[in-house]
Amino acid sequence: MQQIFNFVIRNKTFLLFLLLFGIALSLTIQSHSYHRSKFINSANNLTGGVYGAVNSIDQYLDLKEQNTILVEENRILIEQLFNKPVLYNEDSPESFDKNFELISAEVYKNSYNTPNNYLTINGGNRDSIQEDFGVITSKGIVGIVDNTSNKFSTVLSILNKRSRINAKLKTSNQNGSLTWDGKSPYVVQLEDVSQFAIINVGDTIVTGGQSAIFPKGIGIGTVQEFTTDVTGDTYKIDVRLFNDMTTLQHVFVIKNNDIKELKALEKLSDG
After folding, report:
1. Domain with CATH 2.40.10.350 in the chain
2. pTM to 2 decimals?
3. How far apart are CA 16 and CA 22, in angstroms?
4. Counting beta carbons within 10 angstroms of the beta carbon of residue 218, is it exposed (0 to 12), middle (13 to 18) or buried (19 or more)?
5. What does CATH list as the number for 103-270?
6. What is the pLDDT of residues 159-199, one digit of tens each?
């Protein structure tokens, strides 16, 4: 306390000046509208800047939660696109035949620079994920579930020389087999497309829907270039992927609720 008194005594002249200056400034602001408006504007700019900085920090800290919300919203929207509306009634203006459900997951490991690439995701048997379930993002396909444990799954990437997925030209519905030549992680190949297909650079390639793994019409990429094979009967098309397979974070696993029935029917047909 004595130090405070000593400080006041030593600086009494300066402190008196500050007090009188503050009083004069306050009287000037109150008695002149111009000065009052300038003061208010300056105060608003200062407080606005402080609030903006605090809000930016809050948004950064809240980023993970917001990402989770966005992933869930994307899951719902994509699921609705896969499932066509069927019956309309008073109780439910729009009901869906739930053939497909989406299970969200995060990518824990992702390889893309070897001949046979895989991903590891944090979803497994406890999340109802099984082998041969398709894996996508909001942009396009990623691969097919290869093995599962209780909490995790490995995914056969489309950037894998063993990968074979039915795909087609969106405009002409000409089907082919999606493969990868092991070169670029941004480009895959669509093979066995009929020579009678009309193809243009920039055409969209989507899933063909001729399997129980992927619904038809899921985006894959666009035609980058195309050539005929050695026989001249089919085209080989380089497809520029919609997905950047090197930066995957959030994915959706497609659960086909009819897959058991479809497989049982296929076995009967084969038998």
Report:
1. 103-270
2. 0.68
3. 10
4. buried
5. 2.40.10.350
6. 999 999 999 999 888 999 999 999 999 999 999 999 888 99
